[in-house]
Amino acid sequence: MSIKILLYIAGRAVKGLLVLLVIAVFNFFLIRAAPGDPAQVMAGEAGATDEVFLQQLREQFGLDQPLYYQLWVYINNMLHFDMGITYRQQMPVFDLIMDRMPATLLLTGAAFVLSLLLGVLAGVVAAAKHRKWPDSAITVAALVFYATPLFWLAMMASLLFSVYLDWLPSFGMQTVGEDFAGWDKVRDIGIHLVLPAATLGLFFTAVYARMTRTSMIETSRLDFVKTAKAKGMKPSRVLYRHVLRNALLPVVTLAGLQAGQLIGGAVLTETVFAWPGIGRLMFDALFQRDYNLLLGVFFISSAMVVLFNLITDVIYCVVDPRIEL
Amino acid sequence: MNIIKTLSQNKVAMVGFAVLVMLILVAVLGPYVYEGTPWKMVQRPFIPPFENSSYLLGTDILGRDVLAGLIYGTRISLLVSFVSTVIALLIGIPLGAYAGYFGGWVDEVLMRFTEIFQTVPSFALAIVLVAIFEPSVYSITGAIALVSWPPVARLVRGEFLRLRNQEYVLAAKLNGQSNRNIILKEILPNSLSPIIVLASLMVATAILLESSLAFLGLGDPEIMSWGYMIGSSRTVIRQAWWLSFIPGVAIAVTVLALNLLGEGLNDALNPKLSGKRES
Amino acid sequence: MTPLLKVENLSIRLPEGADREFAISNVNYDLLPGEILCVVGESGSGKSMTANAIMGLLPATIEVNRGTIIFDGYDLVSLEERRARALRGNRISMIFQEPMTALNPLMRIADQISEVFLIHTDMTSKERETRTLALLEDVGLPDPEKMMRAYPHQLSGGQRQRVMIAMALALEPSVLIADEPTTALDVTTQAQILKLIKDLQKKHNTAVMFITHDFGVVAEIADRVVVMEKGIMVEIGSRDEVLNNPQHSYTQKLIAAVPPLTAPERISHKQSDRTPVLSVNNLYKTFSTGGSWFRKGRVVKAVDNVSFDLYRGETLGLVGESGSGKSTVSRCVVRLLDSDSGEIVLGGSPIQLLKGRDLAPFRKRIQMVFQDPYGSLNPRKTIGQIIADGPIAQGMSPKDAMAKAVELLELVELPAAALDRYPHEFSGGQRQRVGIARALAHDPEVLVADEAISALDVSVQAQILDLIETLKKRLNLAVLFVVHDLRVAAQVCDRVIVMQRGKIVESGNTRQVFVSPNHAYTKSLIASIPGAHWRSGKDAKPPIPQEVVA
Amino acid sequence: MKKIVMGVVIACLPFASSVYSKPSDGGTINVVVQPEPPSLMIGMYSNGTTQQVGGNIFEGLLRYDKDLNPHSLLATSWENSNDGKTWTFHLKPDVLWHDGQAFTSADVVFSVDKLLRQTNARLRTSLAFVDSITATDDYTVVFQLKEPYGPFIRLFEVGTMPMMPKHIYAGTDYKTNPANHHPIGTGPFKFDEWQKGSFIHLTKNENYHVKGLPHIDDIYWHVIPDAASRAVAYETGKIDVLPGGSVENFDVARLSELDNTCVTTDGWEFFAPQAWLWLNNRQGPTADKRFRQAVMYAMDREFAKSVLWNGYGEIAKGPIGSKTKFFDDSLPDYEYNPEKAKALLKEMGYDGTPVRLMPMPYGETWQRWAEVIKQNLKEVGIKTTIVSTDVAGWNQKISDWDYDISFTYLYQYGDPALGVARSYISSNIAKGSPWNNAEGYNDPQIDKWFDEAAVAFPDSKRAELYKKIQHKLVEDVPVAWLMELEFPTIYNCKIENLIDSGIGINDAFGTAWIKQ
Fold first, then answer.
1. How far apart are the C-alpha atoms of B220 and B207, rounded to whole Å?
2. Collapsing DSSP states into helix, strand and coil, what is residue D488?
3. Which parts form a coiled-coil structure per UniProt (chain B) (predicted)?
4. Taking the domains of chain D in order of start, what are their residue ranges?
């Protein structure tokens, strides 16, 4: 890799870190604006408690300190790559997030790859058969999936495939109580993954299909496609060799943007399918007022967005020789 | 005008438009037809659809009229989505316009600001905002607006960057027109087409967002909404799948209608992108 | 001689809703082996349609209605697609107008060229590479080895067009179709490309169908000429017949509109005893691109120590090729761009540093006419608003401003009815008139015309030039005429300044510059003008027919 | 000194006799745990799920059957002196902690006097009546009370007074002790693994102090954060036990009809959860007794019971649960009577001021209940606005008295002095806790009666006082009692003896076994 690219990445990383820092501060105040505090939530679950216990908890969490001091401590810790301790689980936030990360990465990664492959394929087919029935079919299907609420689709899928047909498990990531190892474990996780990944992926499949189709059609009107045709090339070959690569450029941008967002954006799917991922963790942390954890999840998922944007740019630069970093 | 003519020739878009008009009518007139409140427990719970002629779509877990719920739900869905879109436009357009028109450090500052909002996962942010400011029509609308303006700002900025060097804009500068005039009268009207298209899609997205929030229990407890209906009947999906199914269809149809209209607008306003004209 | 390609009774139908039913109707012509046939016409004449039909490049919504295109015994119109494909790029090939977009931006040059071999031959990859390299050498590209690995964006426009030619001639086709291949190029590059095409055509005895709007180019290379008007072939004949003795009135009109190259003798002003209305002294402007926090971007000196004076009643031409900085100078002068250093003195006051309110009064005194008749008028405003906006912004009451707009419309020879209509209802020439009216609404002293006619068809160009000339005289304007077309410059400018890479290389009395250029660059510019030998000003200008408002 | 022997000497854990003759060993039980507990350190966290899981790892000195009679566990026998002030407990010898150390009286003294006194708020209140705790030998502990304290003998279950290992906790910061992550108890099951967000695994304690127990090899507590998924998990056989409250009530009816499914409401006797509406006695229309009575008449509690709770539970008549000791069944009824409600409102001159109604953010049923009550109140002319909030907001709003009407439900802990008095006595009016007298009811007479009833001796005296209390409170309606809740536990019928005590699922699965 050239110095130029490294310098570019360094520059972007610095900017990204600044953005993340601002986000952290912003979130810090945002979350403190919520009514109640973690001590109350935990005491609330206990069913009976008194001020003494609440005070003990607050002291333990450092919530008895003035707000500006808490912020200073938090930022200071962050600068030392320490995200603090979760109040509820009494674990380092980072460890807990990393515990949950594989599940989210698996789910969103599978959905992402699936939707990208399927979406691009569908888009290409639609564009190739422009204004013939496959185009209409794909366009309609894409529109419908694009318009369907994700959580509802998830519910209906689980109703159909788990409850009525009993083909697939409807929740969780592994069969509970079974200690699978090796391939059995992979298979087990695999079948649990099907429904969540498919429902999460369907929406994005629709997005990519629409985008690829439009982009293909637009690209196929460009001059160099005419050049390729004038060479006597078969239309399918023109499509594959010349149109596709150019048409994929905007899809790459969009995909990069969404890849980052997916990490924090699977709350609904994770809720419906009880998938033990980051989105659910965030949701729970929010209601438990687990400030450190919530901030941590936000930080990590924002950092993912920054990271994926950067990766997208680098990929873009590799795919498109015109772009110089 | 030309656009309306082009649009009216687009059958699919007109279907979307017709559905939307119908929904707006339902939202406006429905409550007059269905007086009272959709919260009223009118019959025994779990009457399936088409079984009791007074309650065409049956009753829910508490014996409330599902059809009444759907009708009142139209209202909140459309209201929240339109208002939040308008707010998002009110934030995004000036921001994007200033960034794009002035460029330089103004652009840098405004775009960094936008980037912050784009970096935080938007649905998660919406959840947090609604939870923190406690679910109500206002907090939901505000949260949706707050997470949906960045694309507007980006789009408008792009349009302004493109248009600010158009010769008629330069001519306006040479005329000695104020920046405000140039932004409002020269550039903005010419960047409206893509904004309108985006706005129509934003309304659709806002409906999905609103229903997702309500589904997660972050809806306004005073207002019957489609997302609430799905979320609240989720626990009984085995006994009464239709209770979740029907409002879901309502959402899908509405969003689909908006998307169709948006596509139609896109075809009519941005002929370059349309499939109709090839040359 | 047997024609290679025979177009017979060809009609191509346009989709419903177009401005006419047929793109071309009843077109008949032959292409003989080894000849260059020029198909000439203005925009919308349908001159490219036949070529697209030959290549099977007609859009799906447009189809051949009637007629045949016979090539090698086959009718290309009805030929099975698979067999037609075998001919394309092999026996018949084509090059296009826009070298910037005609190549796939993501593929290396070598891959794009060798694709032709890949499609039509069974050469090994080694052979393909050798042949590609040879082709690049043939079309005169520098450092062909390196070119092989280059991407299109790394090449200049001329180089890309050479690549296109290499690609088209790879399999030594019998017919080459060139669709305005030099229109987008600078004049010196154009001369080189024309020469290349001619040389290669001679070498391989290729028949060339050359589509162009430029009679200069026709004069330069054509053997025979076909003239098209609104889809109808109005004239066909040998170059000399058509150019020097046009039969059809349309051809006559077109040819008459081509400005002769020789500059007429002009009354030279005694400049020393008058004050210039505009003085530009030691102007500098640099652009930097692609910089970021960690790196410096590329720096381009767009204007490099430029000085000149402009007097009322004269037209000063600012000529040069693209990238010479002539447009940057004009934009600095009207203060659309801030210059880095130097002085711009308007009517005695330096204006280069003024901002906002201080600048406003000077805005009135120097106005601009823009290049693009489509982009220079706000499509959302009526013609009346467009013209009146300026005076209103300067404080005139809307009513007076409208009244003034009516006057101005009359001045630019547009009917008052235009006032309430929108730009899209007007033709390019008419819009340019509106643009002039807008500029004149301030009663300026200086009018800057930035390539004000280059986007127009040649017959319309002449009318606009005439209008500017008339107005200049009537209003005693000082005109700064930015132009790349030397024929136009020769005709309308009293003095010219020749710019190259931001610097002034030569300036002086137009006739003097054209007759005896001093600088080598000026010489090469003038030598590159296509058809320089033809219409060199000996014959008088025929009268120009008036354009009528739609 | 004459002593009353109350315990049985034989350590006999299984007091529920099994229908099937011979329990078989082995097998795994999969249980749902919702929400995921913050910790298993039962001495510090009294969260419901901490108790559910921790109840298998830790033990108290006694257990209670479904009639709340005490039985031996870590204590084999106990005596109370004649004046009711001295309690002597004899511990079971040869009990080992999971790490192999012996359990002795030192652990008891440490747990109660040191650790729990600091960490357990509920016990702390009761320990105020205890003068001293001493170990007279390795297996004898004496509690010296200041006064005879009626509820004292109800304090020894594992959730209230769990035994913690002194050798691990003494001299450490209890909250940060690493053993909190790997709890060591004396219970029938040992902690094995906790995959946060996924499951907690307990294994059989081979060295359990009751021979032949436990029968089960493994218990998995599964974290399934979504109610519908929990139901599906049960249906698909992945889960064997759904503890009360872990599926939505709407699902209970359907699940109970599945094959091989047993449903029981047993195991809540000790807690006897009582649901009511906090009515803010300080301000607004709710400050008026007639308004509060009107609310009682306006509510269609039968509807709520049959639709929202599937018929489980009882309509609450007053502050003390009908299955609890000292309940007085001569109390008048507040039947569903909108007309009476309207009349009362008219009488007080209610002007239609809207009141805020805050549901409890603990699941769908509570949300629906609020919607039902909103309609009920609307029909008698009370306009309500539902205030939506989450757990933290709800706790804070009640703690800060920032509400008009709000739902809640509280446990009674087997004795009115433990679970009832706290919500009505004026000394318990303090901001900062949602579990005290949050409605702000203040009546000196009631205060006095409750004080006397706690220390009155013997029980007949207490019963008399509680009767007076009940009649007075029912007349005043400081809060609007809704229902005595019953949380049905749904489980696979293959499991025998799942619930055998008054704390139900919160107790160990020591005697449970799986039919082969």
1. 14
2. coil
3. none
4. 10-25+36-180, 274-484
Which of B39, B135, B238 is nearest residue D374 as measured by Cβ atoms?
A: B39
Report the C-alpha dihedral over residues C368, C373, C374, C375, rounded to 10 degrees.
Answer: -20
Name A274's Cβ contacts closer than 8 Å, sequence gap at least 6: A171, A172, A280, D224, D225, D226, D229
Tokens of A168: 């697939």
CB contact under 8 A, C294 and A10: yes
**Interfacial A residues in 19-58 facing B (CB < 8 Å):** 19-20, 22-23, 26-27, 30-31, 33-35
When CB atoms are compared, the residue of B62, B131, B234 closest to D368 is B62
How far off is chain B from D251, nearest CA to CA, in Å? 6
pTM over 0.95: no
Q: Which residues contact A102 (CB under 8 A, 6 or more apart)?
A: none
For C505, the enclosing helix (H) or strand (E) is: strand C503-509
* Residue ranges covered by each domain of chain B: 2-45+56-278
SS (H, E, C) C181-195: CCCCCCHHHHHHHHH
Q: Which residue in C241, C237, C219, C217 sits closest to C227, CA to CA? A: C237
- The answer, yes or no, to whether ipTM is higher than 0.90 is no
Paired tokens of A118: 């399927």
Q: Which domains does chain C have, with CATH numbers?
A: 1-91+174-256 (3.40.50.300), 99-170 (no CATH), 313-337+357-549 (3.40.50.300)
* Residues of chain A neighbouring B129 (CB-CB closer than 8 A): 30
Element (H, E) at D181: none
Q: What angle do CA A234, A237, A241 make, to 5 degrees?
A: 145
Q: Which of D68, D78, D84, D1 shows the shortest CA–CA distance to D457?
A: D84
Q: How far apart are CA B270 and CA B192, in angstroms?
A: 11
* Residue pointed to by tokens 């003085």: C279
Give A286's contacts in chain B (Cβ within 8 Å). Answer: 127-128, 131
Touching check for D30 and chain A: CB below 8 Å?
A: yes
The amino acid that residue C52 corresponds to is N
Q: What homologous superfamily does CATH list for D10-25+36-180?
A: Dipeptide-binding Protein; Domain 1 (3.90.76.10)
- Digit-by-digit pLDDT tens for chain A (325 residues) are 577 778 888 888 888 888 888 888 988 888 888 888 888 887 776 666 667 777 878 888 888 888 888 888 888 888 888 888 888 777 888 988 888 888 888 998 899 999 999 999 999 999 888 888 888 899 889 888 888 888 888 888 888 888 788 888 877 787 765 667 788 888 888 888 999 998 888 888 998 998 899 899 888 888 889 888 888 888 888 888 899 989 988 888 888 878 877 776 688 888 888 888 888 888 888 888 888 888 998 888 888 888 888 888 888 888 888 776 5
What's the CATH number of domain D274-484, 3.40.50.720, 3.30.565.10, 3.40.50.1110, 3.10.105.10? Answer: 3.10.105.10
Could you give the domains of chain A? Answer: 93-319 (1.10.3720.10)
Evaluate whether the domain defined by B2-45+56-278 bears CATH number 2.60.40.60.
no
Sheet of strand C278-289, all strands in order from the earlier edge strand to the far edge? C298-310, C278-289, C341-346, C349-350
